[in-house]
Amino acid sequence: MAYLTLKNINKIYPNGFHAVHNFNLEIEKGEFIVFVGPSGCGKSTTLRMIAGLEDISSGEFLINGVRANEKGPREREVAMVFQSYALYPQMTVFDNIAFGLTLQGVDEDVIEQRVKKTAQILGLTDYLDRLPRALSGGQRQRVAIGRAIIRKVGVFLMDEPLSNLDAKQRVTMRYEIAQIHRETGATTIYVTHDQTEAMTLADRIVVMKDGYVQQIGTPYELYFKPANVFVAGFIGEPPMNFIRDTVTGGCVKFGDTRLDLSERLRRIGDYEGREIVVGFRPEAIQLGRHADAYVMTCDVELTEMLGDNTNVYIAAGDAHAILKVDSHDTPETDMPITFSIPYGSVYLFDGETEKVIG
Fold first, then answer.
1. Which of 234, 266, 296 is at the close of a domain?
2. Same domain, 11 and 153
3. Within this chain, do residues 213 and 327 fall inside the same structural domain, yes or no?
């Protein structure tokens, strides 16, 4: 039996807005689940329904097989880390971490022991006497996490906890959150709009759009086996390139280049005269001409040197795409570039449903 079960969960607000549609998910004990998607997709609303901060309009939420729809946040034994840290400014780091235990009337000696152990895990031992205003953003976020994990509850819920940090702090905190999860083994549900956070932290990812679940899978599955155009374009940086065209003579066009898909489409079904979407990832290409690949020559519009690699923006007529190449192979702007897309790296999607085909 799954530890947490969400069955046909819906959230409909009094004004009629349907924020979450038929959400279904089973979560095993100790899993790290990430809800990811653009702003307004329903991921935070779903998290708040799990926490008991939002009512569930319909459907069932089960904890260890027991219905929990009507239970309050405390009865559900969950701890939540918010985007805003939500620390008490007048309290020291020690008192902020200890706050939940203090409310429960836990013995002071036990509180001190557990706070010191938690602070050691989070690297906060030297800051226990400080007020939150004397800490950096990353340190304050660690205090907020400490206040959650010290309670030893069954489920940790994190709502965009790193969004207020700068890029360097986010990288550091991603590592620390992953380490905390390994040490505690706690069931964790994490909300973010950042696909990099999702890919690096999750055991499984739930991709959402407009209140609907688009796909659930491991980072590997979402990257290599996307269910539709949205998932394929959302997961990966830079995003997947798409060529949308009507199949004519078994081919689609990218600028003046014809990509012969006839053999592949023959195995899938009759798509002649129908619109399809061809996708390929920027990092999947090979410079030059190669066998068992589609070969294209396009104009270089712009390059972005990022250190170990370069993003190359190309154009072929009205068509545009991004290539990812080794920095040592950075081409000249306004010059042609020839590259190959291996047949096995090309994705096909139905033009109408946008679901993957083949």
1. 234
2. yes
3. no
CA-based R_g, the chain, Å: 24
| CATH number of the domain where residue 331 is located | 2.40.50.140
Residue 36 token pair:
């990811």
Maximum Cα interatomic distance, the chain, rounded to a whole number of Å? 78
d(CA 282, CA 280): 7
User: Does the pLDDT at position 349 exceed 80?
Assistant: yes
4 confidence band (pLDDT: 50, 70, 90): very high
User: Looking up tokens 């069931």, which residue turns up?
Assistant: 187
Q: Is 167 exposed, middle or buried (0-12, 13-18, 19+ CB in 10 A)?
A: exposed
199 and 279 belong to one structural domain: no
Q: In whole angstroms, give the CA distance from residue 159 to residue 47.
A: 8
Do both 166 and 193 map to the same domain?
yes
Residue span of the structural domain in which 271 resides = 241-357
Per-residue burial over 29-48, b = 16 or more CB atoms within 10 Å of its CB, e = otherwise: eebbbbbbbeeebbbbbbbb
Structural domain tally of the chain? 2
Pair of tokens at residue 222: 């979402």
| Mean pLDDT score of the chain | 93
Q: What are the tokens at 55? A: 């009512």
Residues 219 and 331 in one domain: no
Taking the C-alpha atoms of residue 261 and residue 351, their distance in angstroms, rounded to an integer, is 15
The rounded distance, in Å, linking the Cα atoms of 347 and 91 is 54
In this structure, the answer to whether residues 296 and 253 fall within a common structural domain is: yes
Q: Tell me the two tokens of residue 128.
A: 């226990």
Q: Are strands 18-27 and 241-246 parallel, antiparallel or unpaired?
A: unpaired
| CA nearest to 235, candidates 261, 257, 217, 256 | 217
Query: Confidence band (pLDDT; 50, 70, 90) for 163?
Result: confident
